[in-house]
Amino acid sequence: MSDFLIIGGGVIGMMTALQLADAGQQVTLVERGRCGQEASWAGGGIVSPLYPWRYGAAVSQLSRWSEGAYPSLALRLLEETGIDPEYRQKGLLYLNVDDAEKALHWSRQLGKPLERVGEDFVYNKEPNVVMAGDSALWMPTLGSVRNPRLAKALKARLTAMPQVTLREQCGVSGFIHNNGPVKGVVTSQGPLEAERIIVCGGAWAAQLLVQLDVQLPVRPVKGQMITYQAPKDLVQRVVLKDGRYIIPRADGLLLVGSTLEEAGFDKTTDAAALASLKQSAEAILPALALCPVAHQWAGLRPGSPEGIPFIGALPEWPNVFVNAGHYRNGLVLAPASTHLLVDQLLGREPVIDPAPYQPTPERLIHT
């Protein structure tokens, strides 16, 4: 029997497993499909909320801690697995920001580099980008990670760790508790027992926990994205305008995202979203009109009230823990939120105050 059983093989689940294994714990991770193939694969990989000054303190604390953790995490995974998560720290250009003064005030309060820049600055950084208005904002410290490669590296590392058992294509259909403490889960590969259970099911977390009569206010929010196959270095850093972004990869692939759709668990793509994303991208980078769209896809974000994740033990099931509800910021918040949960699991001093994230009765839905 494992010390810990983790449900969900996205970045949250895999980072949790990695940290527990680093601490010498025996971990089993179960994933109903393939690890890292849902929202962790579908996102853009910007290591910051899109407009960080528009979030409350709870999200900001996790974001700041995670941002500092990504460079060393990416280097570690490259050295251990030979797979490069392609962490790039080339900054972000914000175009057409209507609350620039609020953004600058936020940056001064936190000591975060952010400055107002003009057309010449933008042109020098990104000659192919079209300005919107006469000023923009520049955040030089922002980084991005190639999330499919991050997930691949995490899986490779966990596979090589003797303390970790990975079970893919292993759907969880229920919990074993017999009206007492939860002792394990029922899966498509048979029952699995563990001392403690951790639910990292992303948009599916609420569906799992309803079996324990827990009403977790996490819902799927669809986001569609596209990629262009473009000449290398057509754009070199993340550019954001009116909530849509372009993210360059090292091989010339350009990601453009994303839509926000309340469509349940539907992951189909459509022509209207494609046209909207193309229009947004080509308004930022007109040269993309001559480049082919290589791919279109959709993922499901785990939406939650105010985008604040649930991290901690369930009130009526003290050996069942949850780490879900990161909304648009799963990749952004993953290092901090997993570290915070592992601190609680192992009785360590938490990296930040865990109180805002606890799945207390007040934060859960009452029916």
Automatic annotation (TrEMBL):
<dbReference type="GO" id="GO:0009228">
    <property type="term" value="P:thiamine biosynthetic process"/>
</dbReference>
<dbReference type="GO" id="GO:0043799">
    <property type="term" value="F:glycine oxidase activity"/>
</dbReference>
<comment type="pathway">
    <text>Cofactor biosynthesis; thiamine diphosphate biosynthesis.</text>
</comment>
<feature type="domain" description="FAD dependent oxidoreductase">
    <location>
        <begin position="3"/>
        <end position="343"/>
    </location>
</feature>
<keyword id="KW-0784">Thiamine biosynthesis</keyword>
<dbReference type="GO" id="GO:0005737">
    <property type="term" value="C:cytoplasm"/>
</dbReference>
<dbReference type="Pfam" id="PF01266">
    <property type="entry name" value="DAO"/>
</dbReference>
<dbReference type="GO" id="GO:0009229">
    <property type="term" value="P:thiamine diphosphate biosynthetic process"/>
</dbReference>
<dbReference type="InterPro" id="IPR006076">
    <property type="entry name" value="FAD-dep_OxRdtase"/>
</dbReference>
<dbReference type="InterPro" id="IPR036188">
    <property type="entry name" value="FAD/NAD-bd_sf"/>
</dbReference>
<dbReference type="GO" id="GO:0050660">
    <property type="term" value="F:flavin adenine dinucleotide binding"/>
</dbReference>
<protein>
    <submittedName>
        <fullName>Glycine oxidase ThiO</fullName>
        <ecNumber>1.4.3.19</ecNumber>
    </submittedName>
</protein>
<keyword id="KW-0560">Oxidoreductase</keyword>
<dbReference type="InterPro" id="IPR012727">
    <property type="entry name" value="Gly_oxidase_ThiO"/>
</dbReference>
